[in-house]
Amino acid sequence: MTLQPPSTAPDPPPAASSAPATSDAVPTPHSAPVGLGRILPVDRMEAFPGRWVGGVAMVLGPLLMLAGALTRVRSDFFFPAQLAAYERHPGLMATSYALFAAGNLLLWPAVVLLAARIAARSPGWGLWGGMLALCGLFARAFHAGVDHMAFRLADAEGAAAATRAVAETYGAFQIFSALNLAVLAGWLVLALGSRRTQVLGPARALALALMAGLPLGALKGTTLLSLVALTGLTVALVPMGFGLLRQGPRPSRAAVLRWIPLALGTLALMVVLGQAG
User: Fold this and answer.
1) How many CA atoms lie within 13 A of 149 on its CB side?
2) CA distance 259 to 126
3) Which helix (H) or strand (E) holds 164?
4) How far apart are CA 78 and CA 33, in angstroms?
5) What is the pTM of this model?
6) Mind listing the pLDDT tens digit of every residue in the chain (277 residues)?
7) Spatial separation of the C-alpha atoms in residues 191 and 126, rounded to whole Å
């Protein structure tokens, strides 16, 4: 019997993968930014809109709304007195309503970020709290548009004519009236969700729930309840906003010097185009 030496033939090459090669690999968290990211870097975020946008919104939104309410605190609550006050002090009242509307606009990133943090621990509370609160913000934005048109009518025809027009059309149907319940309920659901998930402590969750008492509708003045509700919103969100801004690394000076001119230029362009129609 003849013994055969062990085979020295090379191993066959591995079979080619059936999946085609692709260069669209998903970047890892440590991969360098490409394209626009090299010029205008953006922090990697746990959830949209991120800690910078969300943190700034949590600080400025409540403070602007509170400033707007305080600016018209001397005028009576209902729309005839609001229009009469506008006729006497147009600059003051226009500023008051503009501050309130700007704060309401800035609240949407704050609500989105808060709802995302709640949803990370309890998806249902985050979903419904965020959806209801955002719908409420949209309704208040619509009311701000009504306020603007009423003031323009007062400029053109006088406060008495504007008051008659508002009184005759106040109960007219419009789709945003369906969101009136969301204006109130959204803050309650967010407050309960933030407490159940421990995103906010009991005191600040209760302060957030006070926003359900903020009066809604067009041409509304300021009452004690308004100030309590907006103070509660400030107590609930402003510390959280500052906390978010302090988390993580600060942006480099080069990034700040690139972002600030771009942001200011974009805002100026939007204002100019908006005025042009």
Assistant:
1) 10
2) 31
3) helix 159-169
4) 54
5) 0.82
6) 444 554 444 555 554 444 444 333 334 444 444 455 566 666 665 567 888 899 999 999 999 999 999 999 999 999 999 999 999 999 999 999 999 999 999 999 999 999 999 999 999 999 999 999 999 999 999 999 999 999 999 999 999 999 999 999 988 888 998 999 999 999 999 999 999 999 999 999 999 999 999 999 999 999 999 999 999 999 999 999 999 999 878 877 887 888 888 888 998 999 898 888 6
7) 10
